[in-house]
Design goal:
This protein is an alpha+beta fold. The chain has two helices and two strands.
């Protein structure tokens, strides 16, 4: 899985989609050129470590019934 990095703009909260490291950094730099000209690119990034397991809507409803039995 090469799409492991997501970059966040430090000025407006824009974030890139999950991309490889080089493409993500390049897209953030392009964002800064378009939206924040003259500003040094900043922000942050996150690394996807694995696929999250989601229980979905049904799991959330089931938890409610377990927390508040009738």
């Amino acid at each position: 899985m090469s799409a492991r990095f997501r970059y966040w703009c430090g000025e407006c909260g824009h974030k890139t989609p999950w991309l490889d490291e080089g493409e993500g950094a390049e897209r953030l730099a392009d964002h800064y050129l378009r939206r924040h000209p003259g500003t040094e690119p900043g922000g942050d990034f996150e690394i996807r470590t694995g696929e999250r397991q989601r229980s979905g809507c049904l799991g959330g409803v089931a938890r409610l019934f377990l927390l508040f039995p009738g």
